[in-house]
Amino acid sequence: MSDPVAEQKRYYAERAPEYDDWWYRRGRYELESESLARWRADVAETEAALEAFSPGGSVLELAAGTGIWTRKLVRLADRVVAVDANAETLALNTSAAELVRADVFEWESGECFDLVFFSFWLSHVPEERFDEFWSLVGAALTPGGRVFLVDSGAGDKAHTGIDQADGEETRSLADGRTFRIVKRRWRPDELADRVRPLGFALGLHDTANGHFLYGGGGLS
Ligand SMILES: C[S@@+](CC[C@H](N)C(=O)[O-])C[C@H]1O[C@@H](n2cnc3c(N)ncnc32)[C@H](O)[C@@H]1O
């Protein structure tokens, strides 16, 4: 892939109008009733875990997208700043967060937050930018600040029919256009081990039906 970060940005800009169909399992992402019940149970488990984590104070959400999690965060926290690279996704983010259009690798907030949150984003961070990403997360935290993440579980097959290899996938839009993106599905222990030398102590879990990885922690 020539520039995975740029290709992914384009993919999510073009996918913006159909993005929520995946989360709410509509249209071509529709599931039969038993699979849908398992998906919804995993969604509920992840939402409950975020609530139990008590994200109070100020929150920075990275790669916030259309606002599926932003809307939950604004309910739980005092203030949310939501960053995303694309105007197309932010236009659909109707939460009460402060929206910032910026590339997470280029943006400097100039302030620190009690919580940095990112969902379905870490799996898109290329290996060569992984350490850089965690360094910018650490720089955005207040002393004692925390991190919470949600992502695809290692065995998740939410996007079926895709061509997966070596942490990359070919994704198609409803109109058939295809994009090559980075998609690394982490196991909880593997990710916790990977970020420990970067200074983060995270408690991570897979949901009961394996769709999602979630959890949080802070700088050790
Ligand atoms: C899989 S979506 C996740 C959206 C949201 N966090 C959620 O869980 O619904 C990935 C998001 O990352 C954004 N994005 C892609 N590359 C980015 C970059 N370099 N900087 C900031 N946002 C980026 C896309 O616009 C998209 O909204």
Mind telling me which CATH architecture this is? 3-Layer(aba) Sandwich
- Topology pattern, helix = H, strand = E: HHEHEHEEHEEEEHEE
Which CATH class?
A: Alpha Beta
- What is the number of strand segments? 10
Please name the fourth-level CATH homologous superfamily: Vaccinia Virus protein VP39
**What is the residue-mean pLDDT, rounded to a whole number?**
94
Radius of gyration: 16 Å
How would you characterize the overall build of this protein?
- There is one protein chain.
- The chain has helices at residues 4-23, 33-53, 70-76, 87-90, 127-139, 188-195; strands at residues 58-62, 79-84, 98-101, 113-119, 141-152, 163-165, 168-172, 178-182, 200-206, 212-219.
- It has 220 residues and is of the alpha/beta class.
- The chain has one domain (4-219): 3-Layer(aba) Sandwich (Rossmann fold), CATH 3.40.50.
- The strands form two sheets. Strands 3-2-1-4-5-10-9 form a seven-stranded mixed β-sheet, sandwiched between helices.
- Strand 6 (163-165) and strand 7 form a beta hairpin.
Structure summary:
With 220 residues, the chain is α/β, with parallel strands linked by helices. It has six helices and ten strands; from the N terminus they run H-H-E-H-E-H-E-E-H-E-E-E-E-H-E-E.
Topology:
Elements: H1 4-23, H2 33-53, E1 58-62, H3 70-76, E2 79-84, H4 87-90, E3 98-101, E4 113-119, H5 127-139, E5 141-152, E6 163-165, E7 168-172, E8 178-182, H6 188-195, E9 200-206, E10 212-219
Parallel strand pairs: 1-2, 1-4, 2-3, 4-5
Antiparallel strand pairs: 5-10, 6-7, 7-8, 9-10
